[in-house]
Amino acid sequence: MEFKKRKIKFKAWDQESRLLMRLNSIDCNKGELIKKDHILLQFTSLYDKEGEEIYEMDVLMVSLNKYVVFWNDQKNGWYYSPLDNREAQTPFLLQEAEKMKRFCSYFELHT
């Protein structure tokens, strides 16, 4: 099997201006990526049904139901859950992503 590198991309929630933005640069300190006053949101490597990139903490829709995507540290993978029930967690895989439409970032809903 041939090794294929993956893109590691980020957006960020600017806590001061309360805007979602693409970054020109990210600082790295001892291997940890940081951006002062920002919450970094990693690209999941998956796309919604219209080909839009899906990032960590994106809100996705299926019909009128809203879900949020997040990294689960304990299970070491991307998961999603209903916006109103974060306890109901399901692995976020290609077949789920292709049925969903990106709506907005979780942070944009709570500004």
Report on this model:
This protein is mainly beta and about 110 residues long. The chain has one domain. The chain is about 5% helix and about 50% strand. The strands form three sheets. The chain has a five-stranded antiparallel beta sheet with strand order 10-9-8-7-11. The chain has a four-stranded antiparallel beta sheet with strand order 2-1-5-6, with no helix packed on it. It is globular and about 40 Å long.
What keywords describe this structure?
single chain; 111 residues; mainly beta; 5-stranded antiparallel β-sheet; 4-stranded antiparallel β-sheet; 2 helices; 11 strands; 7% helix
Shape: globular
Largest sheet: 5 strands, antiparallel
> Can you count the helices?
2
Return Rg in Å: 15 Å
Alpha-beta content class? mainly beta
Low-confidence runs: none
- What is the H/E order? EEEEEEEEEEHEH
Distance between the termini: 46 Å
- Kindly state the mean pLDDT as a whole number? 92
What's the number of domains? 1
Report helical residue fraction.
Answer: under 10%
Strand portion, in percent?
over 45%
Across the major sheet, the strand order is 10-9-8-7-11
